[in-house]
Amino acid sequence: MILCSLVLLLAVSGAGAGELDLGAMVNPAPVTAKLSDPDYNIWCGAPIKGDDGKYHVFYSRWPRKLGHQAWVTNSEIAHGVGDSPLGPWKHHDVALAARGVKFWDGSCTHNPNIARIGGKYCLFYVGNYGDGVLGKGLNWTHRNHQRIGVAIADSSNGPWQRFDQPIVTISDDKTAFDSLCVTNPAGCEHADGGVLLVYKAVEYVEGKIGGGKVRYGAAMADKPAGPYMKKPGRIFESDDGDAGKHWMLAEDPYLWFSKQYGNRYYAVARDVVGKFTSASGGIALFQSEDGLNWKPASHPKVLGARYQWADGTTSFSTIERPAMLFDGETPIVLFGAASDNKNRDGTFNVQIPLK
Fold first, then answer.
1. How many domains does the chain contain in total?
2. Residues 59, 60, 66, 71: what is their CA dihedral angle, to the nearest 10 degrees?
3. What pLDDT, in 10s, does the model give residues 213-256?
4. Where does the signal peptide begin and end (predicted)?
């Protein structure tokens, strides 16, 4: 009888552990739980707890006076440190600075994503190069030169080893979904060893400088520095029959492998048109058994189009660039890029507690 009871308890516990409901864990954000700087627009936010016991966040920044579109020409990846996962954050250094147009990432570094793989700190990111010209709109030369790289360090404080070539670049086939540029990497250690990387891509379209549809793919490698092998197919797609008409369905994934919740991969991503959460701009949770075939999780809605502050007010905007911070295997904070006005002339990173 004792053995039967134990088996039943383990079965029930295993079933419960397999159902991650991040939306039920979301709490209002303290008004102080934000990383901001009066001189810089801040975007992204890649958190990790360091071996020093402190919390580290890697974020994109560029001079606020240049406007939001200057992210594509002037962004650099900075590094902040805090004693609490909700801040306050102190700027520590610039982790990945501009290093000259002779390099593939010489003008701009952006979209940081941090993971611990094989005992190393692996900072995945996007880099580009170009003429540096600022205009009223996006500098398409810089945007279309975006490629994906990784910097590797023994410590969350660096120094960071950068490489002369990107780890993921565009496909030579002009009809491929990733034939114009590749961006927004998210990496984690594969359950069987090696690295799983998902990435955003834009397809080349003749006569359209910005290209066509935006979709996601996956690549794998035996070690963080590569080489990476692209896997066939696209991910974070919708089964909806009209999904193909949309320019973009999902964006900004952050992924991890969880032993605590079902021994599977999870990803949080922005639900661009509301296909997965019914909230355009909301945050959706996806799951996968192998890291290549993804579907909405049992509880797909993490956030709606807005989030709540602890003072009772509602945010001006949704969050973008979601990222997770963990205590061991337990998710404790959702990070996201946000703005408090439509001009995006004072963007910041907000930390939303999960309990």
1. 1
2. -150
3. 999 999 999 999 999 999 999 999 987 767 778 999 999 999 99
4. 1-17
